[in-house]
Amino acid sequence: MTHSPESRAWAIGGWVFAASAAIVMGIWQIIEGIAAVANDGFLIETENYTYNLDTTAWGWIHIVLGALVLIVGFMLFSGSGFARFMGIFLACLVAINNFFFLPYYPLWSLIVIALAIFVIWSLATADPKDL
Fold first, then answer.
1. How far apart are CA 31 and CA 72, in angstroms?
2. Is the dihedral of CA 33, 38, 41, 46 positive or negative?
3. How far apart are the C-alpha atoms of 4 and 67, rounded to whole Å?
4. Which DSSP string do the residues of the chain spell out, in sequence order?
5. How far is CA 11 from CA 19, 67, 121, in A?
6. Can you give the pLDDT at residue 68?
7. CA separation for the pair 8, 79 (Å, rounded)
8. Are the C-beta atoms of residues 119 and 18 closer than 8 Å to each other?
9. Which backbone phi and psi does 49 adopt, to 5 degrees?
10. What angle do CA 106, 109, 111 make, to 5 degrees?
11. Confidence (pTM)
C-alpha cells in the first residue's frame, strides 16, 4: 500500500510534534520538580487529600519522570519503535502523575495532562512506515 505525500507529511509532522512536545514536557517536569524540592513552600499542600505526599517527594517524582521523558523525546527523533513505545508509556505516566498532582497546582497540571494526551495521540497515529 503506497501512502500519498500528504499522509506522509502528516505522519512526519505528528512524529516531530510528539518528539518536540516530549522534550518540552520533560523540561517542564524537571523545572517543576526542582522548584518543589528547593522550596517546600512553592506548592500549597491541601488538607485531607487521599494521595497526600510530601512536596519534596512529588518534586523528585517529577524530576525523575521529566528526565526520562526528555531522554525519550530526543530518542524519538531517531524514529525507533522502542522510543515510540516508551514515549506513549511515559506520556501516560506523566498524565497520571499530574492527575494526582492536581490539588497542588491545578492549572499547570491540566496543561501538562493535555500536552501528554497530544503526545500519546501523535505517537499512536503516526505510521512508522511513513517516517
1. 17
2. positive
3. 36
4. ----HHHHHHHHHHHHHHHHHHHHHHHHHHHHHHHHHH-GGGSPPPTT-TT---HHHHHHHHHHHHHHHHHHHHHHTTT-HHHHHHHHHHHHHHHHHHHHTTTTSHHHHHHHHHHHHHHHHHHHHS-GGG-
5. 12, 26, 12
6. 96
7. 14
8. yes
9. -90, 130
10. 110
11. 0.83
* Sequence letter at residue 40: D
* Amino acid identity at 46: T
Q: What is the pLDDT of residue 129?
A: 64
Give dist(CA 22, CA 87) in Å, integer: 8
What is the reported pLDDT for 85?
93
C-alpha–C-alpha distance, residues 58 and 69, integer Å: 16
Place of cell 522534550: 23
